Amino acid sequence: MSDDQIAVPEPHATPATTGGTDTIDRFDNPGLPPHRPRRSDVDAKAAKRAEHQVSALFTLSVLASIAFAVCYFVVDPNLRGRLILIGPMNLYHLILGLTMAVSLLGIGLGAIHWAKTLMPDTEIAEERHLMASDQASRDETAGVLSAGFREAQLDRRPVLLALTGGALALFAIPVALPTIFGLGPLPGDTLESTVWKRGMKLMIDPSGTPIRPEHLTQGTVVHVMPEGFVGDNHEEDGPSALEIMEAKATASVLLVKLNPGDIQSQKQLDWGVDGIVAYSKICTHVGCPVALYERQTHHLLCPCHQSTFDMTNDCEVIFGPAKRPLPQLPIMVENGYLVAADGFAEPIGPSYWERG
């Protein structure tokens, strides 16, 4: 017999041999270790105490789920505060996160404690064999499930069973509420218009510096926002943080200084100032920020799907999946600064089914 035919038995296993040779045929089944009952298996008081502990954990989950729902509608989404070792943060998000965590933790700890103390823990070994699907086997399976239901004491502990179902059912609240209501307010007219209005200064984002035409040289590219919507505006009469976020998603503009001789469209010349033109940064494909400008070709590229726009010809699409040109923002000079002459004349952003 070659060396690779030698089998080494595992520790504490007694090999059985055949035919008087040293070749190992099988190992005797060592069987299962003796079952060690838990305290709750032999002490009714311990079992009742474990039931109360599991009930308390599921009750904690139920209360946390209800607290999540209440806080979701009652607490101000813009509530902010400062925490030790963390610094300033949005307390609304913190409260929702903690209540959701406690709700899920109560379910998890309750299920684990239930399994450790009350559910049967007897070791069972099932021999592998073909499972017939006749009626007798189905009846046997139903009997096993019924016995397991009784052994888990579900029939004797209705409060525990009810709290388990309640905790699992109410945990859907922290999942469903953000899904249903967390998508933000209805768009209203934001799909058709932006916050840009006549006379609004063009402000460099994020510094908030107004722009004079003489400060721009040919080829200059500047990211701008309307006055009052730049950075974190904390003025009492100014827009809220949510309004600033919405403005950044819809009113972002790219300002470029071109050579007037390179511009092919009269509209661009009329809506610009000495070759300075302003276009929406929101790609008309799926809304990615368009911000890659090729100075030599005057092409504007979207980094997401490579839609390419010609800035010398009304930002027409010359490559990629976008179907519409970028909308132009008419600008003018007022008191020496660049300001909007009006809002966008057409909807910004990607096309949608109701847009002609």
TrEMBL record:
InterPro entries: QcrA_N, Rieske_2Fe-2S, Rieske_2Fe-2S_sf, Rieske_Fe-S_prot
Subcellular location: Cell membrane
Superkingdom, natural source: Bacteria
Entry-linked Gene3D superfamilies: Rieske [2Fe-2S] iron-sulphur domain (2.102.10.10)
Membrane-related topology note: Multi-pass membrane protein
Main location: membrane
Signal sequence annotation: none
Domain Rieske: 250-340
Transmembrane spans: 54-75, 95-115, 159-181
Keywords: 2Fe-2S, Cell membrane, Disulfide bond, Electron transport, Iron, Iron-sulfur, Membrane, Metal-binding, Oxidoreductase, Respiratory chain, Transmembrane, Transmembrane helix, Transport
Residue numbers spanned by region Disordered: 1-44
Family in the record: Belongs to the Rieske iron-sulfur protein family.
Function: Iron-sulfur subunit of the cytochrome bc1 complex, an essential component of the respiratory electron transport chain required for ATP synthesis. The bc1 complex catalyzes the oxidation of menaquinol and the reduction of cytochrome c in the respiratory chain. The bc1 complex operates through a Q-cycle mechanism that couples electron transfer to generation of the proton gradient that drives ATP synthesis.
Protein name: Cytochrome bc1 complex Rieske iron-sulfur subunit
UniProt organism field: Ornithinimicrobium faecis
